[in-house]
Amino acid sequence: MLLISNNVHLPDHEIELNAIRAQGAGGQNVNKVSSAVHLRFDIQASSLPDFYKERLLAMRDQRITGDGVIVLKAQQYRTQEQNRADALERLRELILAAVKVEKTRRPTRPTLGSKKRRLEGKSQRGAIKAARGKVDY
User: Fold this and answer.
1) Residue 122 domain-assigned?
2) Is residue 45 situated within a structural domain?
3) 65 part of a folded domain
4) Which regions span the lipid bilayer (predicted)?
């Protein structure tokens, strides 16, 4: 069972984990041992609350297919157990990132002091540039 928050969890039968061979260099071990893990999670068929499902499906993420299936491949570690734990943790982080509500940005105005400092800097820079002109004897 994957614990998402205090009152939301995913049963193991909803998460499909398959062992596959890892890509890339690694010698004999990478060619013989299926240490990478391929995780598939169907959002629509899950027991997640509707709010979670809506937010996940609305995400623009390349790991979510058009059918609403999250596909993760974990091959960072040498053992299958570590890759399995990594894939489950990444799924948990993805779900938590989807339901995180961002604060709305309220536009602010520059302070009077910052305006004065900006204009003083501009006038100083202009004076420096004006002093570069030809000297008339």
Assistant:
1) no
2) yes
3) yes
4) none
* 42: containing domain: 2-99
Structural domains in the chain (count) = 1
Query: d(Cα 37, Cα 80) in Å, to the nearest integer?
Result: 7
For residue 131, what are the contacts with CB-CB under 8 A and spacing of at least 6? none
Full-model pTM:
0.69
What whole-number distance in Å separates Cα of residue 132 and Cα of residue 137?
15
pLDDT in tens, 62-94: 888 888 888 999 988 888 899 999 999 999 998
Does residue 8 lie in a domain region? yes
Angle at the Cα of 3 from the Cα atoms of 96 and 97, rounded to 5 degrees:
5
Contact 65, 39 (CB under 8 A): no
Q: Are 49 and 43 in contact (CB under 8 A)?
A: no
